[in-house]
Amino acid sequence: MKIVDLRSDTVTKPSPEMWEELRSLDDSKIGDDVEGEDPTVNELEKKAARVIGKEAALFVTSGTQGNLVSLLSQTKPGDEILLEELSHIYKNEVGSAARIGGLMIRTYSSNKGVPSYDQLQKLIRDKEDIHEPPTTLFSAENTHNYHGGAIIPPEIMRDMKDFSNKNDLKFHLDGARIFNAAIALRIPVTEFTKHVDSVMFCLSKGLSCPVGSIVAGSKEFITNARRYRKMLGGGMRQAGIIAAFGLVALEPVWIKRLEEDHKNAKLLAEGIRSYDFPINVHNPQTNIVLVELMKKTSIFKIVSELGKEGVLSFNISKEKIRFVTHYGIQEDDIELSIQKIGQILGKYLTK
Ligand SMILES: Cc1ncc(COP(=O)(O)O)c(C=O)c1O
């Protein structure tokens, strides 16, 4: 049976060009990265810094590790940080900011990742009051996973930066999928990242590398982040073996390929929306399609039955099923998925 895996863009496998890059390595291209001696990692970090528009970059094991080293590098235990209430850092990173960073977390609500500044301002602690922990960092997620790959446009990023400056906060961007945002709006990725102090982006999602993420910011920030990466067990020695894939992933032609995923997401959304079921199919801005069930039913059974039919998806809440398009998903996979989704939703939603 044909399997169409739409659970996440993390399931992607490397492209032929990436395998080729790996095969081109020899002993001279790898070394001990903890000592800064892996030429391939050094090349990747240099390239990543240039592409994302920052002074320096660091190769980390995962997005989760990248977010954590960014927080640890820019805060002290006991500080309070502002996280969006549905953000990956808050919901899905095992509370590491609190457990490892000793940070107090205050969440803000938003409209698809965009907060109200009146509300945000009220969350800032009084610096003069010795009873209160200092608020020292603001974080945003772009594109926003739980808001269906929603884009925070550059002008809003600039407002966020102004808010952060005004309140003496560091501004961290969880940009796991920031290249999706740039490609969807057809603007340079630096239009987003120029507003932040630190950014994490994933090589292992739409860019389809098997492992790894990048953290970027000022040289001083990266010196600090390198120390925290080591603390978290992220010193990877001959890591050029995995960094090589990233060199290909950061080529403009590969970043531009994300357009295909966005096109497929639109096709999928239109196809599912054509059914007359009690569902709300969110308009995908990038590569994530959210289907909200408007009738009480078992989402677990729907996701499980879809899986048995070969269409893998993920229930991100009790009402919403998430489908993510990525490298390896073709237009005919989308057609097949629309047909299977119609079949299963019909079974549960038209009774
Ligand atoms: C928005 C966002 N941030 C961070 C991460 C963490 O990345 P990783 O799975 O590499 O730890 C994810 C992973 O899905 C994500 O969606």
Describe the structure.
This protein is of the alpha/beta class and 351 residues long. It has 2 domains: 16-254, Aspartate Aminotransferase, domain 2 (3-Layer(aba) Sandwich); 258-349, Aspartate Aminotransferase, domain 1 (Alpha-Beta Complex), CATH 3.90.1150.10. The chain is 42% helix and 16% strand. The protein is built from 15 helices and 13 strands. The chain has helices at residues 16-23, 39-52, 63-74, 88-92, 96-99, 117-123, 154-166, 178-185, 190-193, 219-231, 240-249, 252-256, 258-273, 299-308, 331-349; strands at residues 4-5, 56-60, 80-84, 104-108, 135-141, 170-174, 198-202, 213-217, 279-281, 288-293, 311-312, 314-315, 320-324. The strands form 3 sheets. A 7-stranded mixed β-sheet has the order 2-8-7-6-5-3-4, sandwiched between helices. The protein has a 4-stranded antiparallel β-sheet with strand order 9-10-13-12, with helices on one face. β12 and β13 (320-324) form a beta hairpin. α1 packs across α11 (240-249), α3 packs across α10 and α13 (258-273) packs parallel to α15. The longest helix is centred in the last third of the chain and has 19 residues, at 331-349. The chain is globular, with a radius of gyration of 21 Å. It starts with a strand and ends with a helix. Bound molecules: pyridoxal-5'-phosphate. The site of pyridoxal-5'-phosphate has 12 residues, from α3. Pyridoxal-5'-phosphate (PLP) binds at residues 10, 62-64, 88, 141, 145, 174, 176, 202, 204, 213.
